[in-house]
UniProtKB/TrEMBL annotation:
Transmembrane segments: none annotated. Gene3D superfamilies: PAC-like subunit. This is PAC2 family protein. The lineage of its organism: Archaea, Methanobacteriati, Methanobacteriota, Stenosarchaea group, Halobacteria. Residues 221-230 have a biased composition (Low complexity). It holds the Pfam family PAC2. Residues 221-244 are annotated as: Disordered. PANTHER family: 3-ISOPROPYLMALATE DEHYDRATASE (PTHR35610:SF8), 3-ISOPROPYLMALATE DEHYDRATASE-RELATED (PTHR35610).
Amino acid sequence: MAHVEVHRDDIELDAPTLVEGLPGVGLVGKLAADHLVEAFDMVHYGTARCEGLPEIAVYSDGEPDVRGPVRLYADPERDLLVLQSDAPVSPEAAESFAGCMVEWFRSEDVTPLFLSGMPAERNDEPSLYGIATGDGAGLLAEADVPTPTESGAITGPTGALVHEAQRVGLTGVGLVVEADPQFPDPEAAGALLEAGVGPLTGVEVDTATLADQAEEIRQAKAQLAQQMQQGGEESTSARPLGFQ
């Protein structure tokens, strides 16, 4: 049965905010999520056991324990959750995955922040805007996050999550940032954290290491980014309507 398995019953959260970090354009969501987990030393809180997720075992350097590919990390001090993924969600599984996760969000009074990159070539700071589900527009206004400057759509598994949140009336926010369509984009991930996640959560996020390690991050994540490009709709993306 599809569900979220919670491993840490000793951790108490009060209407937490969740930052979603599925792989996508520029790997902006994944980079932002991974940075939060490391910066705040977040603990492994739960594992997504949703239908259709890849049945792979993930392990880390220096740690013998294996984990599922899609996990939740928690910081009870900040009432913060992060959805971290080490594998793409297939198009066939996106709908059931979204239903599984959004049902859990509702049951646990979670406010999700969905992150997505919009392919763009730029010479300056990446621009960012926010969209809303449920009563999320009020959160965007309070955090002074800009509204969209054009019509568009979010595709892939993040698009499925936003769609399901809107369908059931769950309050949530989608953050869309301009990102490099070919390579990991730490600068865009930093913009998401500084101009979006930080103001919406009230949590100060230091992104200096993202900037300092930009080239190292690009090299480390380049293979995953290439897989995302080849994966088509497995890769989360925001795009203007009519974009090909």
